Amino acid sequence: MKRSMASMMYRLTGLAGLVCAAPAYASGDVLMAEDTKPTVSVGVYAQHAGDKIVYHYRVSNNSSQNINAVTIGRDGQNDSNPNNDVNELSELPSGWNAKLGIPSTSANTPTGWRVSVIAPEQSAAHALVWEPLNERSPKLPAGQTTGKLSIALDRADNHYLSGHAMITFSDGDPINLTVPLDRLDTAPPAFTVILKPDQVAAQNNKLVGINASFIIKGDYDRFPSIKLESITANEFVDVGDIRDANFGLDDRYFKVLAEDKSRTGRVYTVTYSATDASGNQSLASATVSVSASTVPPVVTDQNTLPKP
Fold it and tell me: Looking at the DSSP assignment, which residues form a beta bridge with residue 257?
């Protein structure tokens, strides 16, 4: 099969020291007609893993053909013109470099497969391709699903969640199919804020340290990003009544003034946000109650009053 030089794209592979050209399919390799496209879906979710963001892909091959490659972040525009394909990814894998490729610690692949960075010349955008190491490596068989495709980044990149996947079939002439990524994690984290202590006695001019902890439940990301959003009160607070609170950061210790100016009890409401790696966010609050102040009665000894 002939392929023109205009249809070539350049791959920076994950093999050490290897830089090679990998051709896209020429106009003779037409995509399947709409009514004969095999059914393939690619789902994605993200997780926090230490200081990294890891994107996991699940490929379900419900077609009657074997899959020979899965490319993430490449939109084939669903036509037969390989020259208008668009790369969609911005952030490169953690530890990647042009000479050594993607470190094994930053990626997961099916057995016998490898993952590489694909980028055309003079373009900041790139794509990732998972493919067999050689002709003897297993393909993704028809009717099966694999979730062994993941990549770690140093910073989040929403394009890894909202872009496209290009599927290459190995039966007969190679055929590409572009499908949108299906975001699997759409539910915000369920979490509870616990403040200790949550009840303090009123003490004039006394600052009390408060520690925050959390109970977090998530189907996909069990370590969402936590941020202190606000601390409010049911009565007016002066500057200095709330100390050491760093809003917008993962701050789990601060101080509040244990004083009740209204004599009915002051209540601080502390709100945190939890944002998972797929971008879903929820808010949760807890309170710190300062007991109502009591003013002891003034008792006057009549014997000590001055005589008229």
Answer: 207
